[in-house]
C-alpha cells in the first residue's frame, strides 16, 4: 500500500499542474503593464509574443508614460558613507549614482551610473529624457531604454537654462542664455536640437515688453502647461519668470509668498512652490489652483523635528528637501534620506551607502516612447565612431 500511495497522489496532482494557465483578458493585462516601472515592462515583453506585441505598441508607450509618477532624483558618490577625503581622492575615479525615489513604494529605481573621470552634470528632465553633460559635451539620454544622442557644442560665454519639447515642431530643444558682458546689455539666447550639427538663434525682439532676459534665469525651471517656470529671484519683485515653449515669449507671474528658501515643482499636473524659512521647522506646499488668474492655495503645512534639520546647509544647485502630495523627503547631515508624511510622521529612513548625498532639482517620469534622433549604438561605433557616454555602466 505504501509503495503505491505516493504515485497515486502524484497522478492526481500532475494533471492540475500541467493544465493550461487561467485565461487573463488582454485588457486586464494591458491595464497592469501600463502601470509598471519601465524595467518591469521590458522584462514582461519576454513572457510571450502577445505581451511583446502589446508592450511594443506606440500607443502603449504613450499611455505608460502618462501614468508614470514624477519621481525625485537623488545623487550620491559611490563608496562607503564613511569614506574620507583622502580615499575619495584616490587614483581610481569615483562614480556618481543617480536614482529615482518612488515615494509611494519607498524604493529606488537606478537611472544613471556615471563612471567617467570628467565633470558630470544633470541639466534638465523632460518627458522621461535627461539632458546630461560631461567634459563640456551635452547628451540627451533616456534612462529607461539606455538610448542617447549628442547636442552641438554650446557657444562660448553661454549658460544652459532650460530643456523642453517645442510643440509646433515636436523638437526637443535645449535653451541657452548668452551674455555679452563687455557690451552689456548685449544678450541673446539660442536653442540646440538633438542630432543636429549646429544650433539656431532665436534672438530677443526688443519691441516685446519683458521679453529680454535681465540676467541668467535662477535655478532649474519647472516644465508645465507648455511653459518653463523659474523660481523667484531678487529682481522684479521676486516674480516667477515664465517661458512659453510654443511661442518662445517670456512673461512673469507673482509667487504666493516670499520666503528665505523657495523652489518650484509640479504636483499632480499643477504648478507648486515649496517654501520655508531659515529655521526650516515648518515647510509649506503652495498649489497654483487657477493658473490663468494666478490664484495660489496653501495645500499643506508640515512641521518637522527641529533637531534633524537644524544643521542643513543650502546649496543653490541642489536640494536638501523635496515635497509632494506623498510627503516630504529630507537629506540629513548624517547622509540619511528621511521620508515624512504630511502629518510630520517619519515613514522611512534610508542610510546612504556612499557619500555626498543630495536631492537633485529634477524629477524623472519614465518613458518607453521611441525617438528617431537617438542612436542606440547596437553596432560598433556611432556618429564618427564616437564611443557611448559613461552614463549607464554597472546598471
TrEMBL record:
This is F-box domain-containing protein. It holds the Pfam family FBA_3. The lineage of its organism: Eukaryota, Viridiplantae, Streptophyta, Embryophyta, Tracheophyta. Residues 24-64 form the F-box domain. InterPro entries: F-box-assoc_dom_typ3, F-box-assoc_interact_dom, F-box-like_dom_sf, F-box_dom, SCF_F-box_component.
Amino acid at each position: 500500500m505504501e509503495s503505491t500511495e505516493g504515485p497515486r497522489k502524484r497522478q492526481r496532482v500532475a494533471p492540475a499542474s500541467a493544465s493550461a494557465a487561467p485565461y487573463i483578458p488582454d485588457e486586464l493585462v494591458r491595464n497592469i503593464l501600463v502601470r509598471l516601472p519601465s524595467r518591469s515592462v521590458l522584462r514582461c515583453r519576454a513572457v510571450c509574443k502577445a505581451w511583446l506585441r502589446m508592450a511594443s505598441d506606440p500607443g502603449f508607450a504613450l499611455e505608460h508614460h502618462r501614468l508614470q509618477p514624477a519621481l525625485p532624483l537623488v545623487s550620491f558618490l559611490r563608496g562607503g558613507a564613511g569614506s574620507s577625503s583622502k580615499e575619495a581622492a584616490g587614483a581610481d575615479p569615483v562614480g556618481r549614482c543617480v536614482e529615482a525615489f518612488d515615494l509611494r513604494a519607498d524604493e529606488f529605481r537606478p537611472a544613471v551610473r556615471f563612471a567617467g573621470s570628467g565633470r558630470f552634470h544633470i541639466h534638465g528632465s523632460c518627458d522621461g529624457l535627461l539632458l546630461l553633460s560631461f567634459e563640456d559635451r551635452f547628451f540627451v539620454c533616456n534612462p529607461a531604454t539606455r538610448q542617447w544622442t549628442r547636442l552641438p557644442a554650446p557657444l562660448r560665454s553661454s549658460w544652459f537654462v532650460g530643456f523642453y519639447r517645442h510643440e509646433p515642431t515636436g523638437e526637443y530643444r535645449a535653451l541657452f542664455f548668452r551674455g555679452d558682458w563687455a557690451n552689456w546689455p548685449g544678450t541673446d539666447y539660442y536653442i540646440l536640437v538633438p542630432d543636429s550639427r549646429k544650433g539656431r538663434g532665436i534672438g530677443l525682439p526688443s519691441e516685446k515688453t519683458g521679453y529680454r532676459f535681465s540676467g541668467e534665469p535662477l535655478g532649474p525651471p519647472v516644465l508645465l502647461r507648455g511653459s518653463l517656470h523659474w523660481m523667484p529671484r531678487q529682481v522684479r519683485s521676486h516674480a516667477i519668470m515664465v517661458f512659453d515653449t510654443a511661442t518662445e515669449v517670456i512673461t512673469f507671474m507673482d509667487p504666493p509668498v516670499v520666503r528665505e528658501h523657495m523652489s518650484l515643482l509640479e504636483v499632480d499636473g499643477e504648478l507648486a512652490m515649496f517654501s520655508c524659512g531659515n529655521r526650516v521647522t515648518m515647510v509649506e506646499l503652495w498649489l497654483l489652483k487657477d493658473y490663468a488668474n494666478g490664484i495660489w492655495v496653501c495645500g499643506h503645512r508640515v512641521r518637522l523635528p527641529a533637531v534633524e534639520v537644524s544643521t542643513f546647509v543650502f546649496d543653490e544647485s541642489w536640494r536638501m528637501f523635496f515635497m509632494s502630495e506623498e510627503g516630504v523627503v529630507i537629506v540629513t547631515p548624517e547622509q540619511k534620506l528621511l521620508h515624512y508624511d504630511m502629518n510630520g510622521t517619519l515613514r522611512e529612513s534610508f542610510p546612504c551607502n556612499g557619500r555626498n548625498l543630495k536631492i537633485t532639482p529634477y524629477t524623472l517620469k519614465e518613458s518607453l516612447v521611441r525617438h528617431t534622433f537617438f542612436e542606440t549604438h547596437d553596432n560598433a561605433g556611432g556618429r564618427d565612431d564616437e564611443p557611448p557616454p559613461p552614463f549607464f555602466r554597472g546598471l
